[in-house]
Each structure stands twice: as structure tokens, then as C-alpha cells.
Amino acid sequence: MQNVRVHVYIVGKVQGVFFRQNVKRQAQNCGVYGWVSNLPDGRVEAVFEGEEVAVKKVVDYCRHGPSFAKVDHVEVFFEDYTGEFLFFRIVAV
Question: How far apart are CA 91 and CA 45, in angstroms?
Fold first, then answer.
């Protein structure tokens, strides 16, 4: 399997609904590494690294999020895989 890295921005009602915690759980369950953070403008930003199928699964989760979220749009940018992460974490702004 090929390793990939994606940088995503999630737009909608995605703060205050346990979005980051659920993304972290999904990433850990899929063996994906990186981080997730709230942005001051109300979006959520994340970087995912791992096997392509696993990363795609986490990105797909971001398209709907937890039950109280309302995702309007997800921007996905592919970047060069670095392998820099040892785990997945929530980053405070």
C-alpha cells in the first residue's frame, strides 16, 4: 500500500460538537497519524498521514462528522508524505 498525506479544511457547524475528538478516534482506529485543530474562523483543520485507503476513510468521515455536526464543505489538498508523525493528536489553537 502507498502512504499519503492530506491537509484538510472542514467547513460548517464543526466546532463545539466533539468533531476533533471523533476525528481523532476515527484516525486512531484506522492507523492514521497527524493532527486536528479548530481554527479561529470556525473551520476545523487537519493533516492525515498513513496508508491511502485508511486516510481516505478518515477524510470520508470528515464529510459528515459526528451526529451534532453539519459539514458544508471539505477541502482536501494532497501533499508529499513525510512520515513525521508518531501518533494522532488534537492541537489547541
Answer: 10
